[in-house]
Here is the input.
Amino acid sequence: MGQHTRNDNEMHLPNLERQPFEPRALKSIVLSAITICMAIVACIPLFSVLIMLIYRGGKRISLELFYGLPPTAFDIGGGFGNAIVGTLFMVGIASLLSVPFGILAAIYLAELSPDSKISTVARFCAKVLSGLPSILAGVFAYAAVVLVMGSYSAWAGGIALSILMVPTVMLTAEEAIKMVPRPMKEAAAGMGCTPAQSMLKIILPVAVPGIITGVVLAVARAAGETAPLLFTALFSDYWLRPNEPTASLAVLIYNYSGMPFPNQIELAWAASLILVLLVFVLNIISRAIGRRKNV
Amino acid sequence: MAEHTSLQRSQSISKPPSAGDIFTNNAFRALTLAFTWGIVLLLAYILFRIGGKAIPAVKEYGFSLLTGTTWDVNNRTFGILPEIWGTLYSSMLALLLGGFFGVTIAIFLTQNFLPRTLETILRSIIELLAAIPSVVYGLWGIFVLIPLIRPLADFLNAHFSWIPFFSTSLSGPGMFPAALVLSIMILPTVAAISQDAFRAIPRKTVEAAFGMGTTRWEAILRVMLPTAAGGIFGALVLGLGRALGETMALAMLVGNSNQISLSVFAPANTLAALLALNFPEAGDTEIAVLMFAACVLLLITLLVNMLGALIINRTGMKR
Here is the structure.
C-alpha cells in the first residue's frame, strides 16, 4: 500500500518491479510451491514400484526362471517358463482375433462411410466397450466359452483379452486412417481408384505406423491384464496345453502374492519385474513408432 | 490427331474399373461393414450373455439381492449391498485424491511451469503410471504400501477414533490402502483428459487475463479453471468409471469382508473383487448371483462412462 501512495505522489506510474511479498504475489508463489510438491509426490509411486521390483525381483532373476516350472509349496528354486509361454500364447490369440477385426471396422468408420448411422452406433459401442471393466470381459468369456467348451482353456483367456483389445485397436486405427492427408486420398480417387484400391494401396500403407502404435499399446495392456484370465484360463503348473487351464504371468503374481511361502513371494516379484519390463518395452516401441510418424 | 492418340494413351492409364475391380470393391465394403456391425453385435452379445445368466438369480431371490448384506453359500443367502457400497465408497475416495492430484498435475503441465524437456519427462512418468499392470500395484500395495501407512493409520485411530472415518484400526488390508492404490491408477486418466481440456482453451484467453494484470494463479483459478471446467468434469467422471471397474488391486488390498463401514481402515469388498474371488469355485446358484453382480457392475460403469463421454462431447474437445 505504501508503495502506491509514493508512486502517486511522483509520476502516477505503478511500481513494475516484482514484489514477492505482496499478498497476491505471495499467494501465487505458495500455490506454485504446493503444485511442485504434488507433482513430485505423484512421481513417488512409480519410482517406488520400480525400485522395489528391481530390488526384490532382481535378486531372483536367473535362467531357471525362463525354463523352470512353478515350485510346489515348500520347494526352493523353480521358475515360471510356462507362465511366460502362456501369456505370449494368449496375447497372440487375442491379437489374431482383435487386430483384423479392429482394423477392418476402422476402415469402414474412417473412410468408407464415416457419417452413416451404423458408424455412429459402432463408434459409440467401441467407446462403451473400451470402458468395460476388464473383469466383465472375463465373466463374458466364462459364460460364452468356458461353459460351452466345458473346461478352462487358453482359448477362453485369449478371447477374453481380445474383447479388451478390439476397441483400442479400432479407435486408434480410425484416427490413424483419418490422419492420412486428404490430397492423397483425392489423388487416388482422381486416378480412378475404387475405394477399395485406394484404401489398400494408398491409405493403409501411409496409416500403418499409426495403426501399429495402437496395436502395440493394446498388446501391452492385454499382457498385464489379470482379471479376465482368473476364471477363463485359470492357472496351471505345467507347460502350455491350449485346451486346458493355462498359466500366465499376471495370474501367477496374483496367486503367489497371497501365499505364505517366501519362495513363492520372491517368484511373484520376479514375475512382476519381467511383466513390467515387457509392458514398458512395448510402450517405448509404440512411442518410437508414433514419433517417427510425426516427422 | 496427335492429341487424340495421347488422349487414348491416357485412357489406358486411368481406365474405368473392370468388373473384377467393382466386385472386389463391393466385397471389401461388405467385409468392413460386417465387422462394423460386428462390434455392435459383440456388445449386444456381451449384455445378452451376462444378463441371461443372471435371470435365474433374479427369479429366485428378486429384489433382496440388492438389499441383502450376507453372503453365505451354505445357507444360499446372497446379498450384494456391502459390495455396491464398497465399490462406490472406494471409487469416491480414490476420485477425491486422484482427481485432485490429476487436475493439479494437468495445470502444472500445461501452464508453462516447466521447460519443455522437463514437461515431456514428467508427462511420460505420469503416463507410465498407467502402464503398470494393476496386479503389480496389488503386490506393491501388500508388501510396501500397507506396512508404510500402518503407523499413520494407528496414530489416526488412536487420537481421532471419534471421527467415523477413523473408527477402526488398520489390520492389514482395508479400504484406505485400496483407495490409495486406486487413486494412483486413475491419476493418469484424469491428468491426460484434463490436459486436453486446458490445451483446448484459446491462447487469447490467458493472454487477456495476464493483460488485465492477474498473477499466474489468479489467471489459472479464475479464468483457466472455469473455462476448462466442462472437460475437467468429464475427466473426473471417466476416472470414476475406471475406478469402479478396477479389479485386481482391490481384490488384493480391500480385505474382502462383507460389511458396510464408514471407517476407511476397515476391510470391505467391491463388486469386481467379489467376482474375482468367488467365481473360480462357485456352484451353479452362486454363479447366477455372481452374474447378477456383474450386471450391476456393468450397469453402473456403463452409466458413468456414457455420462463422461457425453460431457466431453458437449465441450467439443478433440479426443
Remarks:
- Chain B has a mean pLDDT of 87.
